[in-house]
Structures are given as C-alpha cells and as structure tokens.
Design a protein that fits this description.
The protein is an alpha+beta fold. The chain is built from 5 helices and 6 strands; from the N terminus they run H-E-E-H-H-E-H-E-H-E-E. It has 2 domains: about 80 residues, GMP Synthetase, Chain A, domain 3 (2-Layer Sandwich), CATH 3.30.300.20; about 60 residues, 2-Layer Sandwich (Ribosomal Protein S8, Chain: A, domain 1). It starts with 7 loop residues before the first helix and ends with a strand.
Length: about 160
C-alpha cells in the first residue's frame, strides 16, 4: 500500500462524514453506524426513522449514494477494501426479498424446464440472485446484456 492510499478505516471515516452530512443537510434525524463485515469490507448503516428519502424507489438513491461515495474515495487515490452503505435496514430487507424471489424463479424453471430471463438489476442484486440460485441443484445462472440493462438468466442445468 502506498502512502497516498488511505486505509479502509480512513475511507470509512470519509464516507461516514459524507453520509452524516447528507442526513443533516436533508434535515433528517439519523446517525451513521460502522460495522466490520470482514477484513476487507465495512458497512456504514444510516439508522433512524423516516429515511425513505435516502433509500429512494427500488433503492435507487442508496445506489446513487454508493456511487457518490466511491467517487469521493477515488479522488483520494486507490481504494483499499470495500465500503457498503445501508439506510434504515433496507439492504437486509431487499436481500431477503431477493432470496425469496430467486428461490421461486428457480422452482419455476425446474418445473417448466424453460429458461427465464429476469428484469435488469443492479450488480449487488444480481449477486444475491446468482448466489441463491447457484446453491439449488438443477439450475444455473448467467448474466447477459450490458449495464444498466444487465440481467440474470436462469436455466435448467
């Protein structure tokens, strides 16, 4: 690691300040909590009530916050590790819903024997779908298309 590359902890502090500034600028009541996911990943969770403005439709605002945070960090040099952003527990609720959906799709493909292309999804959502479906015997997944229209296709194995 070069002297110009901030540590994961320093990067998390920068994003934490950025998120708290957004909460304050929007006049929301919330705090930012830091959680170590693993040695290479830190999650910054904005906790509070009425945070829907920071979540946005289908999590689009969270995704935009993540991209803005990455842009801020890239200006500081290379990135060390990963920073994940959550607002009001949205990521966990979204993950649980995607897991249920992926399981239903896999069951449908197994029953029909026909491949099914899903709607385009953001990369984190596609990863959840791939992980769930690839853990089920008899079905496989691929991603097709180009961003932002990239989608998961589920096929019989």
């Amino acid at each position: 690691m070069s002297a110009t590359t901030p540590t994961l902890d320093e990067q998390a502090s920068q994003v934490e300040q950025f998120l708290q500034g957004l909460v304050d600028a929007f006049g929301l009541v919330g705090t930012v909590e830091r959680r170590a996911v693993d040695e290479e990943t830190v999650e910054l969770a904005v906790l509070g009530d009425d945070l829907g403005l920071l979540i946005g439709p289908k999590g689009q605002t969270i995704q935009a916050l993540h991209e803005l945070a990455r842009t801020v960090l890239y200006r500081g040099g290379a990135l060390e590790g990963r920073i994940r952003i959550d607002v009001g527990g949205y990521r966990e609720r979204r993950r649980a819903a995607l897991e249920r959906f992926a399981t239903q799709v896999a069951e449908s493909v197994l029953a029909s024997g026909q491949a099914k292309a899903l709607e385009p999804m953001a990369p984190p959502d596609r990863k959840v779908v791939h992980d769930v479906i690839n853990g089920i015997d008899g079905v496989v997944t691929t991603s097709e298309g180009e961003e932002p229209r990239r989608r998961v296709v589920v096929r019989p194995a």
